[in-house]
Specification:
181 residues, alpha+beta, 14 strands
């Protein structure tokens, strides 16, 4: 029998610096502090008008609100700016190019176009679930991991993109479909 995975600090630590909203006891909170030794967090309520006070909770009892990985192909709003995350990820790896979203080939695969002087080549950008990294390649090759993984992960954390499959395992809520309780 397969043991059920529970939420741990390592699953959410990258998001914490960006003030994710988490759900605990059907209420929305921000994480104020983390105690890694006890795997607990101090939570402060999002809605202060409900009279809720800060509280401490075991990490396994909270669920962050995250975007599914498929949102990297959709327009999202971040700090009043509309962007398509897959284009922004390509800009991180190749900032000298002007990237635009060209087409969506499949759920985890995107073709981007950069009008470069040398050719009209397309670039494929995808997230490899086996290797846990962003892959950049030409459309006809398997590709290699990008060199700026830290910057890419920081971008994904700041946009609350679930690259660890927490939503599908029930350890996080989809920010797009979460209903206010």
């Amino acid at each position: 029998m397969k043991k059920k995975r529970i939420l741990k600090l390592q699953d959410i630590q990258g998001y914490i610096a960006h003030k994710p909203i988490v759900i605990c006891r059907k209420e929305r909170y921000y994480i104020k502090t983390v105690n890694p030794m006890l795997e607990t967090v101090e939570l402060i309520p999002v809605e202060t008008d409900k009279g809720l006070l800060s509280c401490h909770e075991v990490i396994k009892n909270i669920k962050p609100l995250l975007r599914p990985l498929s949102d990297i192909y959709r327009e999202i709003t971040h700090e009043d700016k509309i962007e398509i995350p897959i284009v922004e990820l390509a800009k991180i790896e190749f900032p000298e190019e002007k990237w635009e979203f060209h087409s969506k080939e499949s759920k985890f695969y995107s073709v981007l176009k950069s009008p470069c002087a040398m050719s009209d080549a397309f670039l494929c950008v995808r997230y490899c679930t086996k290797r846990h990294c962003i892959i950049v390649s030409s459309p006809d090759s398997y590709g290699n991991p990008v060199t700026k993984q830290y910057q890419i992960l920081d971008y994904m954390h700041s946009r609350f993109i679930d690259y660890r499959n927490l939503i599908n395992t029930g350890m996080a809520f989809d920010i797009n479909s979460y209903k206010q309780l």
